[in-house]
Write a structure and sequence with these properties.
The C terminus is likely disordered. Strands 6-7-8-3-9-10 form a 6-stranded mixed sheet, with helices on both faces. A 5-stranded antiparallel sheet has the order 13-12-11-14-20, with helices on one face. Strands 15-19-16-17-18 form a 5-stranded antiparallel sheet, with no helix packed on it. It is of the alpha+beta class and 359 residues long. It has 2 domains: 222 residues, 3-Layer(aba) Sandwich (Rossmann fold), CATH 3.40.50; 52 residues, OB fold (Dihydrolipoamide Acetyltransferase, E2P), CATH 2.40.50. 24% of the residues lie in helices and 35% in strands. It is globular. α2 crosses α3, α2 runs parallel beside α4 and α3 packs across α4. It binds adenosine-5'-diphosphate and magnesium ion. Magnesium ion binds next to α1. Adenosine-5'-diphosphate (ADP) binds next to α1.
Length: 359
């Protein structure tokens, strides 16, 4: 545990109806950190938040907050608030009253409440909206009210469970930037849940990649993107080409029928591996100048780049380009040694906590 660790889960196991949905999970979250739990639906993200919020008790394991064990402490005695995707604002109260609500419950006198609510209205950019009814607000504005309401009593931690899921893409992008700013201005620890890898990479100090109740990798967005621990993480984090390979020795790999230099070391002699190549890392050349020769099969414009599928001797590679290649064009593809990512093959049972990066 580090000095500035605020929340610590130690070997936490949760079961529903005999099914383990969190499996011996351990995780440290630092004070003032923006941490995101990322993983496909059903992997246990919400359950992890509920453990920290006190809404679910672990079958095994311990939860620590600021160094104290808090198993069994009820939610209202934890310094933690939650924002959900369905933000459940009170429709009969206006914006001001919605934000003020928690302070009233805590019996904070009126003259103390007023400056706190004002501070929150400014924080979420809703000055002037005090008297609006909830149904007179856009989805994004409603989400701001929900955030203000959850922050008004200055919790140590804000748990956010897919809070932008109901918003359209443009609004979601705006709110991502807003949330990051709000977190930095308030210095409150944010634990965010999403299944959207771009959202996780954009906002977080660290990302926790989960699958089937396990943590696969913990690291900064760059660690996770550049050094995924296995093919699942690589595939989940960004579109990737993943093929089988054989690692003959350090710096020496064969995949797709080619023996090529790579930058990886420390594998067993002739170990079967997963080879991951990002679609944006290919270098395109004349067909006879590349390591692989292929034919463009399809091309789709993705807004800033083209996504091509290239057939190279029966292996289909995904390739991102800024130049447009018509289907049928013959091209060469090459990859630099350090853009070839070699990964140990992992069976489902072997998933283990993998600490990536700075710790
Ligand atoms: N109250 C519950 N009763 C039974 N099973 C549940 C309950 N809540 C969640 N689960 C199951 O636990 C697993 C993890 O759920 P959850 O933590 O909500 O995943 P996520 O938030 O990552 O989508 C899922 O398989 C889900 O169906
Ligand atoms: Mg969930």
């Amino acid at each position: 545990m580090q000095k500035n660790t605020l929340i610590s889960l130690r070997n936490v196991t949760v079961e529903y109806d005999g099914d383990q949905v969190l499996k011996n999970l351990s995780l440290d979250i630092n004070d003032k950190e923006f941490v995101t739990l990322l993983g496909p639906s059903g992997c246990g993200k919400t359950t992890t938040l509920k453990i920290i919020g006190g809404f679910v008790n672990p079958k095994e394991g311990d939860v620590f907050f600021d160094g104290k064990r808090i198993n069994g402490i009820p939610p209202y005695q934890r310094h933690v608030n939650t924002v959900f995707q369905r933000y459940a604002l009170f429709p009969h109260l206006n914006v001001y009253e919605n934000i003020e609500f928690g302070l009233k419950i805590s019996k904070i006198p009126e003259d103390k409440r007023r400056p706190l609510v004002k501070e929150m209205l400014a924080l979420v950019n809703l000055k002037g909206f005090e008297l609006r009814k909830i149904d007179q607000l856009s989805g994004g504005q409603q989400q701001r009210v929900a955030i203000a309401r959850a922050l008004v009593n200055h919790p140590r931690v804000l748990l956010l469970d897919e809070p932008l899921g109901a918003l359209d893409l443009k609004l979601r992008k705006e709110m991502q930037i807003e949330l990051k700013r709000i977190q930095q201005e308030t210095n409150i620890t944010f634990l965010y849940v999403t299944h959207d890898q771009e959202e996780a990479l954009t906002m977080s100090d660290r990302v926790v990649v989960m699958k089937d109740g396990n943590i696969l990798q913990i690291g900064t967005p760059t660690d996770i993107y550049n050094e995924p621990v296995n093919a699942f993480v690589a595939d989940f984090i960004g579109e990737s080409n993943i093929v089988d390979g054989v690692m003959h020795a350090d710096y020496d790999v064969t995949f797709a029928g080619k023996r090529l230099p790579c930058a990886d070391v420390g594998f067993a002699k002739d170990e079967a591996v997963d080879v991951v190549i990002r679609p944006e890392d290919w270098k395109v050349s004349e067909p006879d100048q590349g390591q692989f020769a292929g034919v463009v099969e399809s091309i789709v414009f993705k807004g800033v780049h083209f996504e091509n599928i290239v057939d190279a001797g029966g292996v289909k590679w995904m390739l991102h380009t800024t130049q447009q290649y018509d289907p049928g064009t013959e091209i060469g593809l090459s990859i630099l040694p350090f853009d070839i990512h070699i990964m140990h093959k992992m069976s489902e049972e072997e998933y283990d906590v993998q600490e990536g990066g700075e710790e």
